[in-house]
Amino acid sequence: MDVDRDRHGDRAHARNSLASQEATSAAAGVDLHTYEVVTNSITDMVSVADESGVYRLVNDAWCRSTGRSREQALGRPVFEVPDTAATPQWRLALQECIERHEIRRVRDRLPIQDRAGRCLETTFYPFVERVQGLRCAVIVTRDVTEQEESRVRLQAGSSCDVTDRQLAEEALTAAKEEAERANHAKSRFMSQMSHELRTPMNAILGFGQLLQSDADHPLTDVQRRYVDEILRGGRHLLSLIDDVLDQGRVETGRLAIDPAPGAAQPPTAPAQAATGAADRTICVLYIEDNQVNAILMEAMLTRLSDVEFLHAAHPAEGLALARERQPDLILLDIQLPDMDGFEVLRHLRADPRTRATPVIAVSAGAMAADVRTGLAAGFADYLTKPLEITSLLAAVRKAVGRPAQAGLSDGTPRKR
């Protein structure tokens, strides 16, 4: 019997090793595919070259502008693709970007098919490709002919009459406003995509954490390995989502801004700490239209002792429940039907019955700007999905004035 179990264990280990190798190979494809989906939504020419000077990715705009297909570019050295990297200044900038890991920018008239004679500005952004660890450069090229001509006319000074100067200034202003509108639209797109990708990841990682840490119903060794693989794969996909956001910020010129961590600490932390908080039932209201997210939150809060859990799927229902029950803490989603989380917060602060109640934002909007906006609006904290159970429980304890030693419990919270 022992020999049979050992053989069975060896076969299971071999299968797990093979699955891990296949997952790693697939991840590389997912990584490049994820980048391609994003870059094809960008109107500027975008390409990626690795440390060997080989094209790894080109977007649709690059193919249209150069008149070359992906098959003619991908896997080939940059300098062997005719006319796309013609000037020494361009080549030097690419080399320095990869070798020194620094941003480089050049402006020149490149002989690219449908833009011959036009002034093109190329910016090289360094990054390290996660799957194989290659040093690469994201190359973004945009047509700045109108801005350059306006700048030249403005610099002409007295040689330009007042009318020409005014026209040049108006053209420059119009170009700047158009660029700002485009960047704003792209930022909205990236924020929405982050929300749509992070929402299902919240369920995958959240329920996985609950299974992994359930002391009352411990997993077998085999089950624990399965859950560990689910969490490992989920967190890898989450890192790819963050890569997508980085790729989008290359286009909008905000590469230095990172996605927010799982929990953000506000400048001040309003807490409703009552005497004997550790000895009484804490009432928590969660306003969330996604039923799966509500089930997950209820399960996570069972790890705190003496918690009464209330759930409202609609903002109006949540406001009514908050006034009626006056909970100790409100957890509030941001993207809600009919009324967003910021409007709900304003209603709560306008009512004397709920004005002092701490409110924590729980959102899939994970951009750093989203977090800053939430904290500035008056949220006690801002948690981003997918939720980490330890960060959630720490934020709840802090908001209601319950110390950590007040305990973990596996008791089921009472529902409304």
Topology:
Blueprint: H1 2-39, E1 45-50, E2 55-58, H2 60-66, H3 70-73, H4 88-100, E3 104-108, E4 120-128, E5 135-143, H5 145-155, H6 162-212, H7 221-252, E6 263-264, E7 282-287, H8 291-301, E8 307-312, H9 315-325, E9 329-332, H10 341-350, E10 359-363, H11 368-377, E11 381-384, H12 389-400, E12 414-415
Parallel strand pairs: 7-8, 7-9, 8-12, 9-10, 10-11
Antiparallel strand pairs: 1-2, 1-5, 3-4, 4-5, 6-11
Helix pairs in contact: 1-7, 5-6, 6-7, 6-8, 9-10
Task: Tally the helices.
Answer: 12
* Distance, first to last CA: 52 Å
- How many E-type strands? 12
Can you tell me the overall shape?
flat
| Biggest sheet features | 7 strands, mixed
CATH topology (fold) name of the largest domain:
Rossmann fold
CATH architecture of the largest domain: 3-Layer(aba) Sandwich
Radius of gyration: 27 Å
